[in-house]
Design brief:
Layout: H1 5-13, H2 18-25, H3 30-45, H4 49-60, E1 65-66, H5 67-74, H6 78-90, E2 95-98, E3 101-104, E4 114-116, E5 124-129, H7 142-154, E6 159-162, H8 185-195, E7 203-208, H9 210-219, H10 223-230, E8 234-239, E9 241-245, E10 251-255, H11 267-274, E11 284-287, E12 293-298, E13 301-306, H12 314-318, E14 326-334, E15 340-349
Parallel strand pairs: 4-9, 5-6, 6-7, 7-8, 10-11, 11-13
Antiparallel strand pairs: 1-3, 2-3, 5-14, 9-10, 12-13, 14-15
Helix pairs in contact: 1-3, 2-3, 4-6, 8-10
The chain binds fe (ii) ion.
């Protein structure tokens, strides 16, 4: 479409004649005006073909389909189909291919997610933990979350690690939808992109948890990729687990378990560390999911439960599950061998939940 096409159509719709438009735009003939208006009309009517195509493929993949049949149905070449599937995968749609048949993968497949943190030899490293904000739940505490990010910014923190459940997810149990203020995966993603704190100089590195994964189970859609595509400051590290090399020898592990909470706050952390092999323990462990705040040093692991930014829900109240709303700012001293010789954790609690806080962010 030429640069003047859109303007030609606008002038035509304002009532100018072809001759007047020709003069205004400096074109040689009225035939050129006619072509410009036609092109602009066509561009307005036709959505971008790539959006159209990926949507059609996404719809078709609700049932398994052979690659050749899909190409014939959509009247596209195999090369175009391959490129469109790549686009879908980058946006979080889990497309798998088995024996030439394409389908959506609705499973969470555990993978090793290893991330190298930028490091230039510092012996003292500072970062923060904030997780389980469960955005799109009517109990999310966005105001407190934003306040926590403000504190991190004023404290010079540039990296915040999030051990999962950025989203509340869908259909976690019967009646769960009544606890959500948005319905549908696309609206959930849009809300997170809009309202998750953005602060200059701060990047959030996140994994996804069981609530986020509900959208994988329903629609083969990993929202972690979709969120990261739309926000440069939100970096997606993978599903359920991530290993972060803070230095070449100092490891931080993010973990989002899937089991139920225990009555004793430290019980799950201890059992988790008990189950680790001797040579494979991280130096620091950050655990989400249980919505508890805890620091424990056990078997040479500095373990944090990272708290949450969701108030106690009615369901949690019924199950006698407490919510420790807040996040951590952490400072560690590290040797060349990766040993953490000092570990200072400052928990920033939000004791009073804000009722219906999501309404303050509409
Ligand atoms: Fe969780």
């Amino acid at each position: 479409m030429a640069a003047h096409d859109k303007e030609a159509l606008e002038l035509f719709e304002q009532g100018l004649s072809y001759e007047q438009i020709r003069e205004r735009l400096g074109l040689r003939t009225t035939k050129q005006v006619n072509h410009a208006i036609d092109r602009a009309r066509k561009a307005r009517q036709d959505p971008p073909p790539s959006t159209d195509l990926t949507a059609a493929i996404r719809e078709a993949l609700k049932r398994p389909v052979a690659r050749g049949i899909l190409c014939d149905r959509l009247k596209i070449s195999d090369r175009i189909l391959t490129a469109a599937i790549e686009d879908l995968r980058e946006s979080g749609i889990q497309v798998v291919e088995t024996d030439g048949e394409l389908s959506l993968c609705r499973d969470v497949v555990p993978e090793e997610n290893i991330h190298e943190a930028p490091w230039s030899g510092e012996k003292v490293i500072r970062f923060a933990f904030a997780g389980d904000m469960q955005i799109n739940s009517k109990f999310t505490q966005l105001t407190h979350l934003h306040h926590f990010y403000d504190i991190c910014q004023s404290e010079g923190i540039s990296v915040i690690y999030n051990p999962g459940d950025i989203d509340e997810g869908e259909d976690m149990r019967q009646g769960h939808k009544y606890e959500c203020y948005n319905q549908g995966a696309d609206d959930h993603v849009a809300e997170i992109v809009k309202n998750f704190p953005a602060r200059p100089g701060i990047k959030t590195y996140f994994i996804t948890g069981n609530h986020d994964h509900s959208l994988i189970k329903r629609a083969g859609y990993d929202i972690g990729h979709a969120i990261a595509q739309k926000r440069d400051d939100l970096v997606y590290l993978g599903q359920s687990f991530a290993t972060i090399n803070l230095t070449p020898n100092c490891i931080l592990e993010l973990r989002h378990p899937i089991d139920g909470t225990a009555y004793a706050i430290s019980y799950k952390t201890q059992k988790m560390i008990d189950a680790m092999h001797g040579g494979e323990k991280p130096n620091i462990l950050a655990i989400g999911h249980y919505h508890k705040a805890e620091y424990i040093f056990y078997r040479n692991v500095h373990a944090f439960q990272t708290g949450c930014f969701q108030a106690q829900t009615n369901w949690m109240r019924g199950k006698q599950i407490a919510a420790h709303v807040g996040g951590w700012i952490v400072e560690i001293h590290v040797t060349d061998e990766g040993t953490v010789t000092r570990c200072k954790g400052e928990f920033i609690p939000y004791f009073r939940a804000i009722k219906d806080d999501y309404l303050n962010w509409r």
